[in-house]
């Protein structure tokens, strides 16, 4: 299943979040090469949207991101700012989590509704509490000592 994210979040996030993952990076946003979600490593890729028009000549909305849940690939639209990329990353990872951990919804529309709400909420909490991710990282270091 490939889930596509079209909605703009309108939330902002510090760009230094979420550095724990694969050490190799790609592109201008320094995306991790992959992110482990349960048993799977999701490859992280950027894509440059192509302007497409319908028969009436209207530009079609470009997806912000998409997740190939079974193929373990997340694609993020490169024509976003850092805030939008962070929210899109969280959004797409929530789709991956739903698939890997079998968090089922009635249908794709229902999943999209909850994933969009949670990704906006999580992004906002991280933005409003910029020390939170550092604190979480510290608890993980303390655990392993
Ligand atoms: Zn989505």
How would you describe what is shown here?
Helix 1 (82-100) crosses helix 2. A five-stranded mixed sheet has the order 1-6-7-5-4, with helices on one face. The longest helix has 21 residues, at 108-128. Helices cover 37% and strands 20% of the residues. The chain has one domain (2-144). The protein contains three helices and seven strands. It is an alpha+beta fold and 145 residues long. Residues 8-21 have low confidence and may be disordered. The protein is globular. The site of zinc ion has 6 residues, from strand 1, helix 1 and helix 2.
Keywords:
single chain; 145 residues; alpha+beta; five-stranded mixed beta sheet; two-stranded antiparallel sheet; 3 helices; 37% helix; binds zinc ion
List the topology elements.
Elements: E1 2-5, E2 25-26, E3 31-32, E4 34-37, E5 40-47, E6 65-68, E7 73-77, H1 82-100, H2 108-128, H3 132-144
Parallel strand pairs: 5-7
Antiparallel strand pairs: 1-6, 2-3, 4-5, 6-7
Bound molecules: zinc ion.
Residues 3, 5, 91, 95, 112, 115 line the site of zinc ion.
């Amino acid at each position: 299943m490939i889930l596509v994210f079209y909605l703009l979040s309108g939330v902002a996030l510090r760009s230094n979040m979420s550095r724990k993952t694969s050490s190799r990076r790609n592109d201008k946003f320094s995306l991790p090469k992959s992110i482990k979600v349960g048993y799977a490593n999701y490859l992280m890729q950027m894509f440059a949207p192509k302007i497409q028009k319908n028969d009436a000549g209207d530009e079609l909305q470009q997806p912000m991101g998409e997740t190939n849940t079974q193929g373990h690939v997340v694609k993020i639209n490169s024509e976003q700012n850092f805030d939008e990329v962070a929210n899109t990353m969280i959004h797409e990872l929530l789709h991956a989590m739903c698939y890997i951990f079998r968090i089922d919804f009635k249908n794709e529309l229902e999943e999209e509704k909850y994933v969009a709400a949670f990704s906006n909420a999580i992004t906002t909490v991280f933005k409003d509490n910029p020390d939170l991710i550092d604190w979480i990282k510290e608890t993980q270091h303390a655990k392993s000592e």
